Amino acid sequence: MPERTLHRASHEHFGIAPNRCLWLRRMHLARRALQLASPTSASVTSIAMDHGFWELGRFAATYRQLFGETPSATLRRPPDSGTPPQPSGPLDLSVPPSPVAASARHAAG
After folding, report:
1. Residue 9 DSSP label
2. What is the C-alpha radius of gyration for the chain, rounded to an integer number of angstroms?
3. How many CB atoms lie within 10 A of CB 32?
4. Blockwise average pLDDT, block size 10, the chain, 109 residues
């Protein structure tokens, strides 16, 4: 696939560049690993490095912006502790519901 086609498709479907999409996937995989790991046998450093994040200070700062808590807080939180903090800040890439979907839900309810 030509690089230009990949970039165009990524922007059309996700609204971001392909490398940004892959970076976000790695961040989410690291978060999932932190959520599932035992704080007594795992470390933020090892999990971050396992997912290709070598600049640990930058990883921690962007993780906090993206997920609303530090990686160590995620690692320490018990798996059944309820809803995790909501993402906030400039890296919040959550997509608001479309007006069409919202009106369909409203009409169905």
Report:
1. H
2. 17
3. 13
4. 82 81 93 94 96 95 96 87 53 43 44
